[in-house]
Amino acid sequence: MKKTSIFAGLILAALTLFCGCQTVPKEISEELDARQLIQLGQDNYDNHHYKAAEIYFNTVLDRYGDDPKHFLEAKYELGHLYIKQKKYSAAYDNFNEILEIYESVPVGLPGSYKILCGIELAKIPAEKIKEFEARKNAPKTEAEPKQEAAPAVKEEAAPKEQEKAQTEAAPQAPVDETKEEAKEAPKEIEPPKTEGSGESSAEKAVEER
């Protein structure tokens, strides 16, 4: 009996999953208005086709979200759906967004959704509410930019490069070619005086005497 009941339960679960996948709409007609889409979402919710219901409610937000009434209704339906699935974080965010709208626009909105949000939020476990509120009120910290060492090295090397560039660009003094030629020209060597020339002059002096 136990094996039979387990087998029957698996078949039922498979059929439910298969039917749920079949109900997910691939395309949604553009001719459907907000009221019709909400109704389709609610019908699928009642039949436990939660994925299809979520798609219809989000379609209302995409197409008719500019209208506050349709926006609030679709947001509430999504939050109600997430409570059913025990997706408490998503439900809290949806209901909290609705309540913030009521705070910023206190008049001109239907008051029923504000009351319904309070009822649905009470279904979330208290410890989860504390966790979500702490996350909401936590200060946002910006990541500090990382300091790079490479630019500092380049800055130190820059003066040396500038000094080198200035040295290369400085005009060189013109070279005096005449001085260079004078330095390079060899000095003239005077011929040495010979002794023979001295003796001949002395002989001439003796002869004259």
What this model shows, in words?
It is elongated, with a radius of gyration of 51 Å. The protein contains ten helices and no strands. By secondary structure, it is an all-alpha fold. The model is unreliable at 17-21, 150-155 and 196-207 (pLDDT under 50). Helix content is 71%, strand content 0%.
Question: What is the makeup of the main sheet?
Answer: none
Query: What portion of residues is helical?
Result: over 70%
* Euclidean distance between termini CA atoms: 176 Å
Which H/E pattern describes the elements?
Answer: HHHHHHHHHH
Q: Percent of residues in beta strands?
A: under 5%
Write down the overall geometry.
elongated
Q: How many beta-strand segments? A: 0
| Global structural class | mainly alpha
Integer average pLDDT: 76
- pLDDT under 50 segments (min length 5)? 17-21, 150-155, 196-207
Regarding quaternary structure, how should these chains be classified? single chain
Number of helices: 10
**Radius of gyration, rounded?**
51 Å
Topology:
Blueprint: H1 2-23, H2 34-46, H3 50-64, H4 68-84, H5 88-104, H6 112-121, H7 126-137, H8 150-169, H9 177-184, H10 195-208
Helix pairs in contact: 2-3, 2-4, 3-4, 4-5, 4-6, 5-6
Descriptive tags:
209 residues, mainly alpha, 0% strand, elongated
